[in-house]
């Protein structure tokens, strides 16, 4: 009877469990010390991206990517920006390995003649900096995940969702969450009314961001200042659920 008064879970149990397992995987393999001590919640502000005064779009893109790579803790990774053109196939990623993948000492070994990692982007995103930064974070996370031998939580079929989770884990949850579902404006032909970014659902992105904030003791107000208004109630509910019913899971993650 009293179960009738319990709040409905934010996500289905399997999705929630996977997100906590994915965080454990990330902490175990990608620098728990870096996460707890150095990782920040990157915000779409001049504080974190003070490069609007640069002259050309190319300069702005390069500067934005450099900052994303630094905040991700992948400063030592050799990357090459590639602007996609119509009918161009995305570049094939090289084979990678790394012992210390993140932080100032982080390096990566490229097992091919190619000595840089291609980071592809759609030039049309230059006018959508929030989405562009989310795309950069996703691609870095994808390559980061490939640089270790540990299996992706749930198996290789979940490589995409795991890359999304890693991008949130590295501090870019606001960008991924706000860009997860965007309306196509301007009457562009061939565009879907709503465009989806990434593999996680919008709700899963919100929940992953909430786990990040609980682990990092980030206040709700600091997040909601930059989060879509439509997602703020969902975020508050996720925070409440995590603190009230997922204490054991959070404590387990704090031990890494």
The computed structural class is mainly alpha
| Poorly predicted residue ranges | 1-5
Spatial shape = globular
Instruction: Output the helix-strand order.
Output: HHHEEEEHHEEHHHH
Count of beta strands: 6
Major beta sheet summary: 2 strands, parallel
Q: How many domains is the backbone divided into?
A: 1
Question: Separation of termini?
Answer: 39 Å
**Rg for CA atoms:** 18 Å
User: What's the arrangement of strands in the largest beta sheet?
Assistant: 1-4
Instruction: Please give the count of helices.
Output: 9
Work out the strand percent: 5-15%
Mean pLDDT: 90
Helical content (DSSP H or I, runs of 4+): 40-55%
What does this entry look like structurally?
The chain is mainly alpha-helical. The termini are far apart. The chain is globular. It has one domain. The protein contains nine helices and six strands. The chain has a two-stranded parallel sheet. Strands 2-3 form a two-stranded antiparallel sheet. The longest helix is centred in the middle third of the chain and has 21 residues, at 159-179. Residues 1-5 have low confidence and may be disordered.
Task: Write the SSE topology.
Blueprint: H1 13-29, H2 32-37, H3 57-71, E1 79-83, E2 96-97, E3 109-110, E4 117-121, H4 129-146, H5 159-179, E5 181-183, E6 194-196, H6 202-215, H7 220-224, H8 232-245, H9 247-254
Parallel strand pairs: 1-4
Antiparallel strand pairs: 2-3, 5-6
Helix pairs in contact: 1-5, 1-6, 1-9, 3-4, 4-5, 5-6, 6-8
